[in-house]
Amino acid sequence: MKTLNKIALYAGLGISFLIQPGCNLDTEPYDFAAPETFYSNETECTMALAGVYYTLAEESTYGNFYSCMLSNIDDLSFYARAAGTQTTQVFVNDHNTSNKNIYDAWSSFYKGINNANMLLEQVDNAAMDDKVKTRIKGEAKFLRAYYHFLLVQGWYEVPVRTESLKDINLSSMPATSHAEALDWIIQEMEDCIDMVDNETYDKSPGHVKKTVVEGILARVCLWRAGNPSNGGKPYYEKAAHWANEVKKAGKHQLNPDIYAIWKNMACDKYDKAFNESMWEAEFVGTRDDGNYTAGRIGNVIGNIQANGVNTGKGYSYGFYSGSLILWDLFEEKDSRRDLSMAPYQLNNKDEVKDWSQKQIVERRCGKFRREWESSSPKHKNYTQENFPILRYADVLLMLAEAENEVNGAPTDLAYQCVNEIRTRAGASEVKGLDYEKFKKLIQDERARELCFEGLRKYDLVRWGIYVESIHDKLGAATRDARWSKASYFSGAAGYANRTENKHQFLPIPSLELSVNLELEQNKYWK
Predict the structure, then answer these.
(1) Are 86 and 92 in contact (CB under 8 A)?
(2) Are strands 387-391 and 277-281 parallel, antiparallel or unpaired?
(3) Which 3-state string (H, E, C) describes 219-253?
(4) What pTM, to 2 d.p., does this model score?
(5) Which tens digits make up the pLDDT trace of 123-145?
């Protein structure tokens, strides 16, 4: 089954992106179609919706830059390269306002927003079934809100754009306040609840459907409740409500085989039995099999695999290693440890080479392993591996956290959620904790369950412990006698030492500031 992401990849979208916010005019138009004439029927509006989804599948977003280089910046993983060899990059917190990866991700998100705005402005005039029209509008509205959330979460305060950009000379717009933007996002998403599909796409993680909207709403509400907007209890209550709505729907379960989740994503396969992966950024085939995709999941982030021949098990640079902080969080019997920090690498003959007990931080991210891919031939750098945006395990942990915050202590529901996850991993169940101990448990459990999934940095920020966790605690871990002395693992110390308050957020790109004259740099980077 082809999802909208795949339709977009195969069809080249079928429409022009026109002029994009962010003034990124280096787009690749295909068959030009004016908005006044294109959005006339279901086929054309579906193609336009594919263009909105396509933002998820770009290399600048979930294909590499946003998911890895801009978001995988935390205390659990580090960029495994020698000190001084990777300067000016976000993943070592040595970047500035001119960083290209930051600008490309910013531009892509606003491109997706503009595509959504164009569709929403025209879809009411299209000749199609009203139910289909409502669904298309709901998905477009949700994606527009979601892209705004990624911008607000990443860059702090940004312009909220609800109209398509028709004249580049009139594009200047100030930023919306952080709290105001989040409240708009929450309202937009809540408006979509009964608009999006609640049946047909239940087991298709490439589509937005009701439980996806509810799960992402829980994530947005947790962010609004915490640092830096500090909305507090009302938003924790909203987060608990929406996460519990997903749970009560009964459409998602934890897969008892935690490895199966990642093997399925590696070979672009849907798990229809348990449906734990709720929403994924999807990538198709490889460039060597005639399908052009921009995903590098498994290649830049993944286990070390040294065979670059396209008939082998796949090549991976293995840029991201697990830290001692992550390693020490796992019980010995926890199945997530060796899943997350692979205990071996593959050499250039696809032979397994185990890491020794003295090579803990040389273990690379094991959730993405090219040996699990089904495509052939394999491209050296581009893969078919999907990236998880929302898993049911995350929803359960959000529900447990929100329940604790709302009630000032863990509830039976909170224990049920967290113990379901721990039992699946083979870890011992927990009970009898007070508010503070349960809060710390959730922070650690999210680390164990969701490491390398692009969420940890934002968790640390909303908990108000980003600098402490990286500068102080990771910095101390790099001085631990167990930390590898090999040169590839020396850069982590510099990364930790450079981390300061401003790195909680990304700087607004200097190129954007040069054309949007009403926009100012966010307060963290002034």
Answers:
(1) yes
(2) antiparallel
(3) HHHHHHHCCCCCCCHHHHHHHHHHHHHHHHHCCCC
(4) 0.95
(5) 999 999 999 999 999 999 999 99
